[in-house]
Amino acid sequence: MKRWIFRCAGLAVLAFAALLTFRYFDKSLVDTYFRKALREPLGLAGMTAAYLAAFLLRAWAWQLYLKGKASFGACLSGLLYSLLFNHLLPVKAGDGLRVFYIARNGVPWGEALRSTVVLRVLDLLVLGGMAAGGAVLYGFDLSYRFLGYCAAGGIAFLSVLLLLIRSGRVSFLSGEALWSMIRSFRGPRGIGLFLLTAASWVLEAGVLLGTVEITGLSLSALEAVWVNAVTIAGQSFQMTPGGLGTYEAVMSFALVQTGLEGKQAYAAALLSHGYKFAFSFAAGLAVWLVSPLPLRDYRLFQSKKGSTVL
């Protein structure tokens, strides 16, 4: 049933992306934007600095959650490996690789998994807050169709979560695990986790802001943060490598809400996403050269991890 649901959702996403491409793809405009980007090395360097800084803050937050049980370098490497494989594979296998990598660096499997789940939930809460706050602040005209998509996504998320819980393989709602998650957000440590996570997503919006600056489009910093939050939140159920298609669809919709034309919004989304693909491959290759990951051990890890409960 789960496989059937995900396949149908994947086909729907691909169909919507194809429709969007047919309607808004302008090859000459996309070529123009990409040529402009290649002529702006300083702009690309600024985007890279902002995007890398976002991952540095997430690594710091992960190390803070783990109370120093893993080094900062191990946390950063785990995140960059996750980024790479999320852009290589049609599902978010990178999260499993992230758990595996940090577990290989001395963190117990249960705690490695729990930390990944907690920080992913925190990401969604922060992104959801940014998306909702921006919609209220700017008074964006969110159609009933879009709200329906959001509701459908939420229902799908809860359905998959319940299926995982009922399978007995991973108990996300066991009393001890739930209490541990709640305690993670108490006191100064919890405030630090929230601030680091929020700041990381603000910095990631620098990629979109750099994109519109390079292409000569108009977008404020706050609007860039809102568009980025809506776009990333829309990647919760990735059906294609790097969310290809979904990313462009959601970002184009959000950019149109800020006043851009459809063709401009779609071309900017393609440029922004193309940059993120390039960054993920370059960063993944760099971390692979520094700290090679034995994929044979990862396959063995996958075969055994199901027997462990949070």
From TrEMBL:
Q: Which Pfam families match?
A: LPG_synthase_TM
Q: Which residues cross the membrane?
A: 42-61, 121-140, 146-165, 191-212, 277-295
- Keyword Membrane on entry: yes
Main localization is: membrane
Look up and give the membrane topology term. Multi-pass membrane protein
Name the source's superkingdom: Bacteria
> Which Enzyme Commission number(s) are listed?
2.3.2.3
What protein family does this chain belong to?
Belongs to the LPG synthase family.
**In which compartments does the protein localize?**
Cell membrane
Q: Where is the signal peptide?
A: none
Q: Does the keyword Transmembrane apply?
A: yes
Catalysed reactions listed for this entry: L-lysyl-tRNA(Lys) + a 1,2-diacyl-sn-glycero-3-phospho-(1'-sn-glycerol) = a 1,2-diacyl-sn-glycero-3-phospho-1'-(3'-O-L-lysyl)-sn-glycerol + tRNA(Lys)
Q: What role is this protein assigned?
A: Catalyzes the transfer of a lysyl group from L-lysyl-tRNA(Lys) to membrane-bound phosphatidylglycerol (PG), which produces lysylphosphatidylglycerol (LPG), a major component of the bacterial membrane with a positive net charge. LPG synthesis contributes to bacterial virulence as it is involved in the resistance mechanism against cationic antimicrobial peptides (CAMP) produces by the host's immune system (defensins, cathelicidins) and by the competing microorganisms.
- Top enzyme class, one word, equals transferase
Q: Which PANTHER family match?
A: UPF0104 MEMBRANE PROTEIN MJ1595
Q: What is this protein called?
A: Phosphatidylglycerol lysyltransferase
Q: What is the lineage of its organism?
A: Bacteria, Bacillati, Bacillota, Bacilli, Bacillales
Q: Which InterPro entries match?
A: L-PG_synthase/AglD
UniProt entry keywords in alphabetical sequence: Antibiotic resistance, Cell membrane, Lipid metabolism, Membrane, Transferase, Transmembrane, Transmembrane helix
